[in-house]
Backbone:
């Protein structure tokens, strides 16, 4: 059996990027933007790199060299390009980059770190939105809005001026004994809200993204 090798071998696990199958990615460590709050109290961190792996030719691309206190978010593939966030704690900026391997990364917008909630800071589609999510869901770019959501809700995507959320439901749980009853049932709902958080619809189903980028309700 032939074993293929990338031009640079580091022992890192390559993650898929939904929407295409040619390019995968890997991070040099698991520190995320929110972790830097604690790291800053200890004098900062070594920083990380993001690498893109081309399954067609075995090449490995690193758009930026490793820098202290500079971290990267999970990349996405939208509108025939890759997009990722860079958190530079030296300059106090979160930067959105548009990128395609073997091309120079294109800076799209910069946000001040002090103006964003770093918890679950990420990019979601179908359009390219920079968002964060905790008790409140907040969009920073390209449109600014926020709304409170249920503790059982998590945002999956934004499309057609609607926010799509997954809401989990547990029925038949015994809170006193902290266990399932014989009537226990777990399922999910697909929730649609507008940019003010108003409920537009709620239907039974689990919203999932397939590897090819399409969305399915199961």
Residues:
């Amino acid at each position: 059996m032939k074993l293929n090798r990338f031009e640079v071998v580091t022992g890192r696990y390559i993650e898929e990027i939904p929407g295409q199958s040619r390019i995968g990615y890997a991070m040099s460590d698991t520190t995320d933007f929110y972790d830097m709050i604690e790291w800053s109290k200890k004098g900062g961190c070594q920083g990380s790199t993001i690498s893109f792996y081309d399954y067609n030719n075995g090449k490995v691309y690193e758009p930026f060299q490793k820098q202290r206190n500079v971290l990267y978010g999970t990349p996405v593939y939208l509108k025939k390009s890759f997009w990722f966030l860079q958190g530079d704690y030296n300059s106090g900026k979160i930067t959105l980059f548009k990128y395609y391997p073997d091309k120079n990364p294109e800076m799209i917008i910069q946000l001040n770190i002090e103006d964003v909630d770093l918890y679950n800071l990420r990019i979601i589609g179908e359009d390219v939105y920079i968002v964060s999510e905790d008790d409140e869901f907040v969009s920073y770019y390209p449109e600014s809005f926020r709304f409170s959501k249920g503790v059982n809700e998590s945002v999956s995507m934004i499309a057609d001026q609607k926010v799509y959320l997954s809401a989990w439901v547990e029925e038949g749980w015994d809170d006193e004994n902290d266990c399932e009853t014989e009537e226990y049932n777990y399922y999910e709902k697909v929730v649609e809200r507008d940019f003010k958080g108003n409920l537009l619809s709620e239907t039974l189903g689990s919203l999932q993204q397939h590897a090819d980028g399409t969305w399915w309700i199961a």
User: Anything to note?
Assistant: The mean pLDDT is 94.
